[in-house]
């Protein structure tokens, strides 16, 4: 799905926000399409929550524009923006029943009683909790409360739903279950969602596109596949997933691939979206799952000699660590198998495909 093919529910143009001398957001440009799930991802202080709150009307920008459904909304009050919000702490009213919590937004909008009842009952069915309508929030589990918070945000069918780390307070297993639940609800309702998280795996699992942020700026915007396999910066390569970053210098170009001489003298090749010059310092990113130990007689586009140092098994996957040269470390990741591992210090050949190796300017 691309924003050029469907209606844009949200448009952000050159948004800037400062707090004293701190520039929290600088030149943010963003489009959210109808039915799209877009995640703002980044470390603490990267600007993702500042951007979300500006869109929500809870944080006035210094400059720039926000359009919702084609209407200028930069300085509109929050209640006039046709958005739904889901927070990490649920924000349910403890003295109200679940039915009344969900119905609250509809009553504020002066919906007729019969339509309100119909809408609340429908959304409780969608989140698969019709039996809790008469209960109070304290009588529900954390996962159930978060599903009710989702229901409350969805019940009046807003143009955009904003979610600020909604699963951050849950344990890992429940968080993974609710990731799939939110994906199901998003697909079923075909709503536009802008989601904030610092969890890389969560972003990869849930998103149509990811907006990676760093120090108030958008570092890269694209699909999970694009950011994972074709990062445009070292920060993007290192932040999203695990990566081997091999130091080297550009040696030339050959039939669309970049030739790189590594620190130990090995010449390898990869792809790049950058204009590079011969002799330029670069880093070659190779994801650990694309790096393989080669059997005797087996070949690959890129091959280097490495010394095995250790192996770490974490359930279904195993990481094997190696060194090349004097201090360059790298590792592979593969499905766990029974059997003996290599001996410490043993020399092995590692191989990978050129199309899976991304050459990036060294920062």
Automatic annotation (TrEMBL):
Molecular function, one GO term: ATP binding
InterPro entries linked: AAA+_ATPase (IPR003593), ABC_SmlMolc_Importer (IPR050093), ABC_transporter-like_ATP-bd (IPR003439), ABC_transporter-like_CS (IPR017871), Mo/tungstate-bd_C_term_dom (IPR008995), P-loop_NTPase (IPR027417), Transp-assoc_OB_typ2 (IPR013611)
Keywords attached to this entry: ATP-binding, Nucleotide-binding, Transport
Domain ABC transporter: residue ranges: 10-240
A Pfam family reported for this protein in Swiss-Prot or TrEMBL: ABC_tran
Species lineage: Bacteria, Pseudomonadati, Pseudomonadota, Alphaproteobacteria, Rhodospirillales
Superkingdom of the organism of origin: Bacteria
Signal peptide span: none
Descriptive protein name: ABC transporter ATP-binding protein
Keyword Transport tagged: yes
């Amino acid at each position: 799905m691309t924003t050029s093919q469907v209606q844009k529910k949200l448009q952000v143009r050159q948004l800037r926000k400062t707090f004293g001398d701190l520039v929290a957001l600088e030149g943010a440009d963003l489009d959210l399409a109808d039915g799209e799930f877009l995640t703002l991802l980044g470390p603490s202080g990267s600007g993702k929550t500042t951007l979300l709150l500006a869109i929500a009307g809870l944080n006035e920008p210094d400059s720039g524009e926000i359009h919702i459904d084609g209407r200028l909304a930069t300085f509109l009050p929050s209640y006039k923006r046709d958005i739904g919000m889901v927070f990490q702490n649920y924000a349910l009213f403890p003295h109200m029943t679940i039915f009344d919590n969900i119905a609250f937004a509809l009553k504020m909008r002066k919906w007729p009683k019969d339509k309100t009842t119909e809408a609340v009952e429908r959304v409780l069915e969608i989140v698969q909790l019709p039996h809790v309508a008469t209960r109070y929030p304290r009588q529900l589990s954390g996962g159930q409360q978060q599903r009710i918070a989702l229901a409350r945000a969805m019940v009046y069918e807003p143009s955009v739903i904003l979610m600020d780390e909604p699963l951050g307070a849950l344990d890992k297993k429940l968080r993974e279950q609710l990731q799939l639940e939110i994906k199901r609800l998003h697909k079923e309702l075909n709503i536009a969602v802008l989601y904030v998280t610092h969890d890389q795996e969560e972003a990869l699992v849930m998103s149509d596109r990811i907006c990676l942020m760093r120090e108030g700026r958008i570092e890269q915007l694209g699909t999970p596949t694009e950011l994972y396999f074709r990062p445009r910066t070292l920060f993007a390569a290192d932040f999203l997933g695990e990566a081997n970053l091999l130091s080297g210098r550009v040696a030339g170009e050959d039939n669309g691939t970049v030739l790189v001489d590594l620190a130990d003298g090995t010449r390898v090749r990869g792809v790049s979206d950058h204009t590079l010059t011969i002799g330029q310092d670069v880093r070659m990113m190779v994801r650990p799952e694309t790096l393989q130990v080669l059997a005797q007689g087996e070949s690959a586009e890129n091959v280097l000699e490495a010394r095995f140092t250790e192996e770490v098994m974490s359930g279904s996957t195993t990481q094997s660590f190696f060194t090349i040269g004097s201090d360059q470390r790298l590792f592979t990741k593969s499905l766990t198998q029974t059997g003996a591992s290599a001996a410490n210090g043993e020399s092995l050949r590692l191989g990978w495909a050129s199309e899976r190796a991304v050459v990036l300017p060294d920062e």
